[in-house]
Amino acid sequence: MHILLIEDNPDLVANLCDFLQPLGYEVEAAYDAVSGLRIAGEKEYDAIVLDLTLPGMDGLEVCRRLRDDGDDTPILILSARDTLDDKLQGFACGADDYLVKSFAMQELEARLKAMVRRARNGRSHELLRVADLVFDTTTLQVERAGKSITLPPIPLKILTLLLRQSPRVVTRGEIVRRIWGNIKPDSDALRAHMSVLRAAIDRPFSKSLLRTVHGIGYQVVTPDEVDDQR
Predict the structure, then answer these.
(1) Could you point out which of 20, 29, 136, 230 has its C-alpha 20 to 30 Å from the C-alpha of 3?
(2) What is the mean pLDDT of residues 166-173?
(3) Structural domains of the chain ordered from first start
């Protein structure tokens, strides 16, 4: 299980890593809100463990932004805020579970397992398809014309967005907002990721599916509808 900790207390992060890693968990840490949002947008995680009192932004706002950006990764809030109103606010922002500090490590692991199990059981099997390009959202497998395609996390997220919106043109601004949130990437970041995506899903094949609409954005459409942009 791959876990992202967004927690500004280095001692607690160290204790969590010392407990979880020998049990087979992969754990990455972000020590402030901005870094947490950035890292969450760059990789896929099985769960996010989120503190509420963070430098730069309240954890409730971090949770809200993740959900607004379409991130459905299970979120477990860790907080010293222990009133019913605090917990209700956490759930209202999109958290899946809430654990009050201080806590037993064994309870944390049990809650993580239960949260991830519920999320996996609740995800429906979805195939996104345009022409001979198929993306299985459950297994994260991408194929075109029966050939398996491997994509890094961000191009994969962009492809998911474009396939779900096809044949609509998705603007550059919308892609940046959905993938990076309010953390603006480098000026050439989107172009670089689109180049990686195009090289993977179009260049090995005779016809293109990914179309650049100059000055506006991108779309994935059938070969009859797309100009060759290779």
Answers:
(1) 136
(2) 92
(3) 2-122 (3.40.50.2300), 152-225 (1.10.10.10)
